[in-house]
Write a structure and sequence with these properties.
By secondary structure, the protein is an alpha/beta fold. Helix content is 30%, strand content 16%. It has helices at residues 2-18, 81-88, 105-121, 142-153, and strands at 42-43, 73-75, 94-99, 126-130, 157-162, 172-177.
Amino acid sequence: MVKKQKQQLLDENLFRQEMAGVVPLKTTAKTESKKPRTTAPTHTTEAFAVSSDAPGSEFADNLNDITAEDGSSHRKNGIQKRTMQKLRKGRFTLGAELDMHNMTVQSAHPVLLQFIADATSRSLESIRVIHGKGLRSENGPRLKIMTQQVLQNHPRVLAYTQCKPGDGGSGAVDVLLKSS
């Protein structure tokens, strides 16, 4: 036992002698992350004028009958689960973004319809709609629910899903559009 301890001391001393002039390398903290998605400039209310014959405008009559439901994602028949997973993970390039903060349901509805029409006319594959979480609204997340209803019923929308937390979480949706 004593021989073993002496050998360990000798090994430790020998190691310290060999490492006497060594200076540790400086390392920097590096993380590997994906390239951020690029988006077009955010659209505002002034950019759109809507006509009453626009697709989805037939739902304007139901704006006062908005009720809460989960609806964090939706896909139409024929849209594969894998496509939905890609949309959830943000694998589609966003062509445009609409921010509806500080809008009422009545003013946001035609803007949303025109935004979808504009995006499809520009042959955009995916868009983002920021409706907010409705935390400061007296009547709950009415813009969020109106957005979900319009997107579920719009003929040019194939699927939508709630954004990742870093992209807006439950206050925004990524939308997959039907190609022209």
